[in-house]
Specification:
Length: 296
């Protein structure tokens, strides 16, 4: 097995290789003056199983294109099997036709990855695993969805949040917080959005639990603009929570997100390293390496 970290995941790719006990061979890469990417393999991959590690965080389109180039190159250069580890997969939130005239961009991306020669795709906390399972039969490529919730919860348990409530911003992620709760104890719940009919403003409140004086963690797959998480945290603080952690797998943290979270009352921000950020206290390298070992 040859591990090839792509430009978006040099660090994570090296950590995965370390956990597997093999050497990492990062691709050589540069950006042409017109913005296009140049990619070159620095190792022979003929007849090898190649593991490409390349997340899709902003600039998503460029990183996706680099992934396509690396995957196609690997197949063209004679790789026996191409496994792409794409911890954060771009366009996963555009997984339905919400309005007439839209395309299901997520399905297009899966098709592109497959046509680039990827045999197996490993993703972490993809936005909606149920939709992924519905789309999977359209493709020959096998998609393996992993979740980082347990490793995040283990970190929180060891770092001051043992016994804290686990909360999800919506009912859709109830199962996820239920597994976090089985690590940290403290129980789990989800928010309901309440709209003020006069102002149109929405607030988020947890129903049926008394959070007063308690510690809580809000788990989401992504923190992008920070809007969802900030509202959830403010709701908890308004209900008397003593200490609130904002936890996510993918810290996209687009402009102004951290300020929003702090203004909402977050005491700490915890994330994984699926996307490079100044957080990333929890690494997904171990769980990905373990999964890869199981694929051998
Ligand atoms: C939405 O369904 C996702 O799970 C996240 O809650 C959302 O993408 C977070 O985005 P933002 O940080 O911009 O509110």
């Amino acid at each position: 097995m040859i591990v090839v970290p792509g430009p978006a995941s040099y660090e994570l790719g090296k950590k995965i290789a370390e956990k597997l006990g093999v050497k990492a061979y990062p691709v050589k890469h540069r950006i042409f003056p017109d913005g296009e990417s140049y990619i070159k393999f620095e190792v022979s991959i003929q007849n090898e199983t190649v593991v490409i590690v390349q997340t899709n965080a902003p600039d998503n389109d460029r990183k996706l294109m680099q992934l396509l180039i690396m995957s196609k190159a690997a197949k063209t250069l004679g790789a026996k099997k191409v496994i792409a580890v794409v911890p954060y997969l771009a366009y996963a939130r555009q997984d339905k036709q919400f309005l007439d005239g839209e395309a299901i961009a997520f399905d297009i991306v899966l098709g592109l990855l497959e046509s680039a020669g990827i045999d197996d795709l490993i993703v972490v906390d993809v936005h909606n695993e149920t939709v992924l399972k519905e789309l999977q039969p359209n493709h020959m490529m096998m998609v393996h969805p992993l979740s980082a919730i347990v490793v995040i919860a283990e970190y929180l348990k060891e770092n001051g949040f043992d016994g804290a409530y686990s909360l999800s911003p919506d009912v859709g992620r109830k199962d996820i917080v239920s597994s976090a709760s089985s690590v940290m104890g403290g129980g789990f719940a989800f928010f309901e959005k309440i709209r003020d009919l006069h102002t149109g403003e929405t607030t988020m409140k947890v129903k049926d639990i008394n959070i007063n004086g308690k510690k809580a963690v809000v788990f989401d797959d992504i923190i992008s603009s920070g809007g969802t998480m900030a509202k959830a945290i403010k709701g908890l603080k308004d209900q008397g929570a003593s200490n609130v952690a904002a936890a996510c797998t993918h810290p996209l943290l687009t402009f102004g997100a951290e300020e929003k979270l702090m203004d909402g009352g977050a005491d700490i921000i915890i994330s994984t390293d699926t996307v490079e950020s100044k957080y990333g206290q929890v690494t997904v390298a171990g769980m990905i390496a373990d999964y890869l070992k199981g694929m051998l």
